[in-house]
Amino acid sequence: MRIYGNRQLKTLPGLETRPTTGRVREAVFNIWQNRVEGCRWLDLCAGNGSMGAEALCRGAGFVVGIEQNAKACAIIRQNWEKVASVEQFQVIKGNVLSRLPQLAGQTFDFIYFDPPYDSPLYPPVLSAIAQLDLLSPDGEMALEHRPEQESFELPSGLEICRQKVYGNTALTFIRRLESGV
């Protein structure tokens, strides 16, 4: 797997994680392209860390990744150390729902959430993000999912701003409701 600048990343063998395809990564960074420099990025269900690595390569100021699989966490660290200094990132091992509260008080300009597609994590993680106020006022979150999963029950204060389909992958972009709406 290669990312921005033709950098090679490690991946876990087998089907333990499902790395975001190059086409989807490119689309996300084309959409967010002029806003990544210096941003704070949160990568949930980070897999091999390709989205966070891409963000670091494109100038993100700080990246946090949460991943449950211990082997994947080791690979994320190795991948991110190739593209950034250890002061620019944090890898948190554990269940995303139990680990999100430790980020309370922080905000992120971009949140990328890519759980297993059949996972029941979508609603509780969206609620936790809203409750913990993790998305910055001008930030956006992207959810990766199957195209046939068209709607998400959003907690108060969040809204869908766009949806895109790339083959077998769909992205739903979410932002905070503008004040006064």
From TrEMBL:
Record-level GO BP terms: rRNA methylation
Superkingdom of the organism of origin: Bacteria
InterPro entries: DNA_methylase_N6_adenine_CS, RNA_MeTrfase_RsmD, SAM-dependent_MTases_sf
Gene3D superfamilies assigned to the protein according to its UniProt record, in alphabetical order: Vaccinia Virus protein VP39 (3.40.50.150)
GO MF entries: methyltransferase activity; nucleic acid binding
UniProtKB keywords: Methyltransferase, Transferase
Residues forming coiled coils: none
Entry protein name: 16S rRNA (Guanine(966)-N(2))-methyltransferase RsmD
Classification of source organism: Bacteria, Bacillati, Cyanobacteriota, Cyanophyceae, Desertifilales
